Hydroxyacylglutathione hydrolase
Amino acid sequence: MDPINVTAAAEEFTCNAYLVPGETTTLVDAGTMPNVEETIADKVEDLDRVVLTHQHADHVGELDAVLDAFDAELYAYDDHPRRDVALADGEEVTIGDEPCEVVYTPGHAVDHVAFVGDERVYSGDVVVYNDGAFENGSFGRTDMTGQSRERLIESLHDLLDRLPDTVSELYAGHGDAYRAADGDDSVRTVIERALERAERRAPKYDE
């Protein structure tokens, strides 16, 4: 079953939180939309795990509410009081029915990871399809304390190096999901375009 953006109706600033039903029903990030656990409960009977791309506030604001509502395990790269499983680069975690490789992708956040399967990539904020700054391939902001454009560029290279050619869908933390079947580009092309723009080193947003 296709991932469901359970924060799509949010009126407040949030990330995209993707519910992925399957043998291992998974929520990728929790977002900040109040009562998101009720939206999840409307879609599935149970939630097996929550996996975090990173722990910026817009990705974990409703995490406690989700964990309180379901008997779900929390998978995170960095320490968290409720973490059950520590993620590490190169490990495999099943999201829905798809085994995904954990790829460490810092730059936007020091604890950032992406999840790369054979068909889908859950990219968090390291790369997005559109975000108001760029269309058809953009990258996470790197202008705040603790962020690094140079490290994000390295992460985009790493992501491309470990991206199977079979990946056809990109589910990012912000903006629209991208499916190659509905567009003119492959997911690899979208990420390569984001990398090219990041390597220009120009500010992402106007001052």
